Amino acid sequence: MACVFAVDGLGTAHAHTTSTGLAELTVAGTTLTYRLTLVLSELPDSPAQMLAAAVENVESAQRAADVARAKVTVRADGALCSPARTRFQGSRLGDGRVTLEIAFQCPGMPARLVIRDDWFDLFGEHYRTFARLEGPGGVREAALLPDARETSMELGASTPPSGGGFFRLGVEHILTGYDHLLFLAALLLGSGSVLGLFKIVTAFTLAHSITLAIAVLGLAAIPARVVEPLIAASIVWVAIENVWLGRAPSRRWLVSFGFGLVHGFGFASALEPLALPPWNLAMAVVGFNLGVEAGQAAVIILMLPLGLWMSRWPWRARVIQALSLVLALVGLAWFVQRLLVA
Fold first, then answer.
1. Which segments of the chain are extended strands (E)?
2. What is the torsional sign of CA 252, 311, 179, 36?
3. CA angle centred on 175, ends 266 and 269, rounded to 5°
4. Which residues of 42-52 are buried (b: 16+ CB within 10 A; e: fewer)?
5. What is the C-alpha separation between 84 and 164, in angstroms, rounded?
6. Rounded distance between C-alpha atoms, residue 240 and residue 307, angstroms
7. Within 13 Å, how many C-alpha atoms sit on residue 113's CB side?
8. One pLDDT digit (tens) per residue for the chain, 342 residues
9. Cα angle 259, 261, 264; round to 5
10. Can you spell out the DSSP letters for 121-167?
11. What is the crossing angle of helices 278-310 and 178-189, to 10°?
12. Coil, helix or strand for 342?
C-alpha cells in the first residue's frame, strides 16, 4: 500500500488536492446576493488566471461573469431566480483572494431556496463550496460537493449549525493528502507491537488536533512554505529510522507527537481560507477533525491485517526496510520540490 501511495504522489509537490470556496448568501426582499470567495493559488491555472484578469479589466470581467452565471443556479419556492449584476473584487491584503458577487432577482419573497453549484466542472473534482445563508431564523450552512451539487434552505425555520460537511471534508483531506498518508505508513511500518501502534497513533492524533485548532482559530500561524517542506521531511526522518534501525525506536511516540504538531498546521490549510465566524468556525474544526480521525482510522484498519500477515514472514525486516527506503526517497523528492517552489 505504501508503494502505491508513493508512485501516485511522485510528481506532486503539493499533496493536498482539496480546495475550498466560501459562498455567502444574503436575502433582501426579492434580491439574493451570492458572494463566493476563492483563493487563486488553490485553483487550477486556467480559471485562476481568468479570475485574476476579471479583477483587472472590464472585458475579462464580462467573460468571467458569463462563466460564473452558468455555474450557480438559485430557485426560490420552485421558481428560477435571474442572475443580474456580477462583479469581481480582489483582496487588499495581497493574499491572492478574489470575491465574485452575483445579484439574483427572484419572482417573489423567497421562503425556500434551492442553490445548485457547478463550479466543480471548472475547478475540478476536488473543489468544495461551503454555503452560508444569513436570514430569518439565523445562519444556515451546507457543503456542496461534486456528487451533492444542490442544497435546500428554509428561510423561516431556525436550523442549528452542523459540522457534517466539514466531517466529509476532513475524511477527504486525509485520504487525498498523500504526504500525511505516507507519514502514517512510515510510522506504522515500524510500530512493532499493538501497544506501540496505539501510542504512536494517539500521539499523532493529539498533536495534530492541537495545532489544527491553534492555526484555524488564529492563535498561531506558520507559512505554508515552511510547513509543507517540514511535512515532507517528517516522512524522510521516520522512514530513515526504519531503514537504519530496522525497527521503531522505543520512543517513537515522541517523534510522532512532534511531527504531528507540524501536520496539524498542514490540515488547517483546508479551513483557514473560509474565514468563518467564531461559532461556525468551532463547529467546522470539530467536524473536520473528526473526519480526519475517521479517515485515519480507516487507513489503519486496512493496513493492520497486512501488518499482522507480514509479521509471520522471516524476511519481514527486509521488506520494512525496502518499503521505508521508497518512502524516504519520495519524501526527499517532495522536500526538494517544496523548497524550490516556496
1. 19-28, 31-39, 72-76, 79-80, 82-90, 97-105, 112-117, 127-135, 138-144, 150-154
2. negative
3. 20
4. bbeeebbebbb
5. 32
6. 19
7. 33
8. 434 333 344 444 444 446 788 888 888 888 999 999 988 888 888 999 999 999 988 899 999 999 999 999 999 998 999 998 899 998 776 667 899 999 999 998 888 889 999 999 999 887 888 888 876 666 677 888 888 899 888 876 555 545 556 787 778 777 777 888 888 888 877 666 667 778 888 888 899 889 888 887 778 878 878 888 899 999 999 888 888 765 555 677 888 899 889 988 887 777 766 666 666 667 777 888 888 888 888 888 887 777 667 666 677 778 778 888 999 999 999 899 888 865
9. 110
10. HHH-TTEEEEEEEEETTEEEEEEEBTTB-EEEEESSS------HHHH
11. 40
12. coil
Cell of 9: 504522489
Burial environment of residue 19 by CB neighbours within 10 A (0 to 12, 13 to 18, 19 or more): buried
Cell triple for residue 108?
417573489
Q: Residue 74 and residue 327: Cα distance in Å, rounded?
A: 47
DSSP class of 10: T
Rounded CA-CA distance 35/107 in Å is: 20
DSSP 248-273: --TTHHHHHHHHHHHHHHHHGGGTGG
C-alpha cell at 1: 500500500
